[in-house]
């Protein structure tokens, strides 16, 4: 049971990391677009 629990926790952390990364990428893309237009 312990071996099953650890990957699950890692999965949750990985999911949070992916969400954060997506936000950063989106913010960077928006900034780049704003700079290009300006």
TrEMBL record:
Protein's name in the database: Uncharacterized protein
